[in-house]
């Protein structure tokens, strides 16, 4: 039946609303940094990994949030307002601490007399249900949303309670095995990245010239234009706008893209990007996987530079490859982290980017270093790509296993 396909005859098929006693939006209270007297509250980042990440919570003053938003064991946090790609992310609360439901997340409380919370969470994570949520969501320019009234009507299965518990136990065990394999590959990637950084530090900062200079003397930097969101267009014939969300670590991503209708091209033509331009995300400039620096290639164009992203071009005495090494080095990260501004979203200014000091080398020396590190990086990247493919395959296996188990395509009772 629909996304469920054929299910065991003794399983009930009903609307999701029949399995919960509570489904409501979290508190819209303004979130702040942790201070005395503040209470932890969930946000979208808290559940992005599929689990409640207590290191990614916000805080609200106790006087600003009602007790009814406090999460109970088994409550599910569900992302009902997000980009279409990740809408439907969810995680179950299992900790014995005070934690409150925050904005842009639904607080869902399973009816424990009829459904096991662990089973329901797996059901909501299944690929078929996620596709159903995506198809039922109302898209907008930057995000999509699904009303609680729509979510409650989506059809799901309800096996007998003992079978739900068996399925949840089976998935707990098998998913843990897969997650352990993923963790090992992620650890290997981390070690390879550390090796790459060590090579860069040695060749760029550890040998050669003792004189230093500011980066600003060797680059042409342009901060992006403040395109009005009212001018964004869904028309795929328009120009792509490169925003901060599109700048990843070593790559430009267009999975979340908006367009511009080119109504005033003369006003903004200097913000047009070119092949070889280096782009730098100035909000959260450094994330766990590295610096948000990438090089524009032909397939990225045509595209325009949006505010909070910097376009950097090497001048005559700077090699572009060497410039990329500088911006991606751990020495640069140390400089960035010491000079960040902003509280909720760390931000670095163009002047701060240009203020970075580095050892001066001749253009020939820069190119030699770039070639040497380039070959080392090629081999390292091959190993990283292999590990990432292994991670992707493991995650596909996990998704397929969850979907098969919660829809009755495999019988796990004997396995348990």
List keywords for this structure.
single chain; 416 residues; alpha+beta; Adenine-n6-DNA-methyltransferase TaqI, Chain A, domain 2; Helix Hairpins; 3 domains; 4-stranded antiparallel beta sheet; 9 helices; 19% strand; globular
Write up what this structure looks like:
The protein has 416 residues and is an alpha+beta fold. It has three domains: 2-158, Adenine-n6-DNA-methyltransferase TaqI, Chain A, domain 2 (Alpha-Beta Complex); 161-208 and 361-416, Helix Hairpins; 211-356, Alpha-Beta Complex (Adenine-n6-DNA-methyltransferase TaqI, Chain A, domain 2), CATH 3.90.220. The protein has nine helices and 23 strands. It is globular. 34% of the residues are buried. The model has no long low-confidence stretch (mean pLDDT 89).
CATH C-level class of the largest domain: Alpha Beta
CATH topology of the largest domain: Adenine-n6-DNA-methyltransferase TaqI, Chain A, domain 2
The figure for the number of domains is: 3
Low-pLDDT parts are: none
What is the 3D form?
A: globular
- Any idea what the CATH architecture of the largest domain is? Alpha-Beta Complex
Instruction: Give the N-terminus to C-terminus distance in angstroms.
Output: 27 Å
Classification by helices and strands: alpha+beta
Calculate the mean pLDDT score and round it.
89
How many individual helices?
9
The number of E-state strands comes to: 23
Largest sheet: 4 strands, antiparallel
Strand order across the biggest sheet? 2-8-5-7
Gyration radius over CA = 25 Å
The portion of residues assigned to helices is 25-40%
């Amino acid at each position: 039946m629909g996304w469920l396909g054929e299910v065991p005859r003794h399983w009930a098929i009903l609307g999701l609303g029949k399995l919960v006693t509570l489904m409501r939006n979290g508190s819209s209270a303004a979130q702040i940094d942790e201070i005395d007297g503040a209470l932890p509250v969930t946000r979208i980042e808290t559940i992005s990994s599929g689990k409640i990440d207590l290191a990614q919570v916000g805080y609200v003053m106790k006087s600003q949030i009602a007790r009814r938003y406090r999460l109970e064991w088994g409550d599910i946090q569900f992302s009902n307002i997000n980009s279409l790609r990740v809408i439907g992310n969810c995680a179950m609360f299992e900790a014995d601490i005070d934690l409150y439901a925050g904005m842009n997340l639904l607080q869902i409380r399973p009816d424990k007399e009829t459904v096991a919370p662990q089973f329901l969470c797996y059901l909501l994570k299944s690929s078929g249900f996620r596709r159903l949520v995506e198809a039922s969501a109302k898209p907008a320019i930057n995000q999509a949303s699904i009303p609680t009234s729509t979510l409650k009507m989506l059809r799901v299965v309800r096996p007998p309670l003992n079978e739900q518990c068996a399925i949840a136990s089976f998935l707990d065990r098998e998913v843990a095995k897969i997650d352990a394999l993923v963790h090992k590959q992620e650890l290997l990637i981390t070690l390879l990245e550390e090796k790459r950084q060590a090579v860069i530090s040695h060749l760029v900062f550890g040998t050669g010239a003792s004189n230093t200079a500011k980066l600003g003397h060797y680059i042409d930097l342009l901060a992006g234009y403040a395109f009005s969101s009212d001018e964004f267009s869904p028309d795929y014939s328009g120009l792509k706008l490169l925003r901060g969300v599109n700048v990843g670590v070593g790559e430009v991503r267009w999975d979340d893209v908006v367009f511009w209708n080119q109504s005033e091209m003369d006003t903004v033509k200097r913000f047009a990007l070119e092949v070889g331009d280096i782009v730098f995300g100035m909000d959260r400039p450094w994330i766990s996987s590295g610096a948000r620096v990438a090089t524009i290639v032909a397939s990225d164009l045509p595209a325009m530079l949006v505010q909070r992203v910097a376009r950097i071009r090497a001048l005559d005495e700077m090699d572009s490859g060497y410039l990329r090494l500088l911006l991606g080095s751990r020495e640069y990260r140390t400089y960035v982290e010491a000079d960040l501004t902003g509280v909720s979203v760390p931000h670095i200014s163009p002047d701060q980017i240009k203020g970075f000091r580095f050892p001066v080398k001749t253009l020939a020396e820069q190119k030699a270093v770039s070639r040497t590190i380039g070959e080392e990086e090629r081999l390292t990247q091959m190993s990283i790509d292999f590990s990432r493919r292994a991670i992707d395959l493991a995650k596909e296996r996990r998704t397929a296993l969850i979907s098969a188990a919660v829809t009755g395509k495999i019988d796990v009772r004997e396995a348990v």
